User: What shape does this take?
Amino acid sequence: MVQLTLQRQQAHDRMLVHLVNLSGAAQVAYHPAIPMNGISVGIQGNYANARLASSGRALQLKQADGYARFTIPVLDTYEVVVLT
Assistant: This one.
């Protein structure tokens, strides 16, 4: 299970996509998360760039039908994608 939260930062003209890997969460217990590969995300809107906040690595961004689509290669525990 992945929790996804959007945060628009109007002052910086960008959207932040927060992804939290909840695979290790089980009611009141917490275990190390199981890394997840190839998570595809589509966000409504037009964006020119997507990058991982943790590494600065650029992600391939595709625009189609009013959505920006990208893939997170690996999600360990937490990641933020910056869309501009």
Q: What stands out?
A: The CA atoms of residues 42 and 84 lie 14 Å apart. Strands lie at 2-9, 14-21, 25-26, 29-30, 36-44, 50-52, 62-64, 67-75, 78-83.
